[in-house]
Amino acid sequence: MKKRIEAKKRSYSPIKPSGNGSPSKNRRSSQKRSNARYKNTHRPQSKDVSVSGKLPSLENNIRIMPLGGVEEVGRNMTAIECGNDIVILDMGFQFRDESTPGVDYLLPNTKYLEENKHKIRAVFITHGHLDHIGGIPYLIDRIGNPPIYSRSLTTIMINKRQEEFPHLVKLNIHIVENEDVIKVGDLRARFFSVTHTIPDSMGVIIETPYGDIVNPGDIKLDHVDGEPTDKEKEEYSIFKNRNVLFLMADSTNVENPGFSSPERLVHEGLEQIIKDTSGRLIIGTFASQIERIIKIIEISEKYGKKVVVEGRSMKSNIEIIRKAEMLKVDKSTIISVEEMEDYPPDKIVALATGAQGDEFAALMRMSNKTHKNFTLNKRDTILLSSSVIPGNESAVMKLKDNLSRQGAKIIHYRSIEEIHVHSTGHGYRGELEWVHKQIRPKFFMPIHGSHYMLRVHERLAKDIGMSEENIVVPDNGTVVEIRDGGNKLTTLPNKVAEDPLVVDGFSVANIQDVVIRDRKMLSEDGMFVIIVSINVKTGKLKKSPDIISRGFVYLRESQDLLQQTRLIIKKTVENTTKGMNPINFDFVKDNITDDVSRFLLQKTAKRPVVIPVVLGS
Ligand SMILES: [Zn+2]
Ligand SMILES: [Zn+2]
Predict the structure, then answer these.
(1) In the chain, fewer beta carbons within 10 Å around the N or the C end?
(2) Sign of CA dihedral 390, 582, 314, 75
(3) Would you place residue 21 in the very low, low, confident or very high pLDDT band (cuts 50, 70, 90)?
(4) CATH number of the domain enclosing 599
């Protein structure tokens, strides 16, 4: 019998408690406990050390500080400091991964900006993807709620997210267009339109005394066989007469040679498939592919078909494009899933999330027969209009297995060679090279990518003639300085952002703070270990859960509480595992932690650290 044992870790890394000993040793000694408290509150933590204090004075130099997005794809944010002014480009977040258990999102570290918030004049947001706007609700107040500037759709997306946090400050947000010039302190900002997968994507130009600092944002090019269209040429022609001091640019796809296929070809491919499919057509794509979603709905209407929308993020984005008046279709074209039965199957196109095999998204639920309203059959066609994100290969394979087990026909991006069903939003090497040649910067910094991607982008810049000393490959928090009246590029020895900030529930903290908070909870409210044994076939408990607790309540006198907790655990496990195959242990553990913590808080007004251990056999 094989057993899986997984204990939930709340802390980011096993930072050894130093002077005050481990929490388990503390639990019997009230004397030590108060010592621990004393040390936690009075010992200076790293967060109390000023980061600006470590830097030389700015003088007449310009500082460019990527605070996130240059060691990963995600949490993009760059600050530019010149004279008395700081401006910020993008404020994204990154979803957590295996290396960050116990947190929800990773954010750029804004310590330097918090210390210098009196100098912040503006935040410019290039487009509405979460790796560019996701940090705003958590960070904007920390940096003094400066004005935000972006295009219309982006502002709607930002406001929509802010509504989910009603306790937060009201944003000071403004729409800008190509012809606008925004004065920000002694600097000025201009904008240009770029092609990406979401409408209203823009590049930003910051005018400084020594020339322009340019960030086009996430870009690809619309082109015909490698020749950019006239519209692209016109947009980038603004650089003909500009003196560009510094360019930072997207490195996501720099490794791929040539030009990526333009979205236009995908639209043509989708039109052919929507037109020719008999039976229901279910299209799985990224909810962030706003342009494609608009096109799919328009094409469906053109061929007299109705569109059903499945998945929370997809629904929410369609609501947004409606609000932005970017969806020019009749109201009756989008129908609810209940109305689906009123139409013959070949009049139905469904848009669904989950093409990456995400556990709880619409497509996955259809595939494992746990979707309330969608039962797949042999006459259905499923189009996966997405690439497979590295790391998701086995989840996507599982999805395809489950879908085809139900007899549905599957089309994905490699099924039919001559028809395009997906294209990326990030330009390939050929496109980036063309953009470099239009902008002709004096200095260059690759951004938006892992270190390796940035290095490949550096190579590209050298290949087209830039010299090594004019290129900087940064890490998160690197302080890049332009000195000597715009003539010398250098980096400072100290960084301004070492660790990311993390979002854990509703709180934003340094990673060390999360660890410290756990230790604090252990020393104050103890811990509560739950051992659950699940039958992996049925998802049911094999026996009543075992509970071990330290420093929380005296168990022998709390039999009632324990009994009620056991019932809650049973309910949580069985509700979570219902229809789930295979069982996602992490998800089960997260739900146990949430439900039990809430219950214990209600009953005892204490917050012990709840540690579920789930055994499956
Ligand atoms: Zn993007
Ligand atoms: Zn991005």
Answers:
(1) N
(2) negative
(3) very low
(4) 3.10.20.580
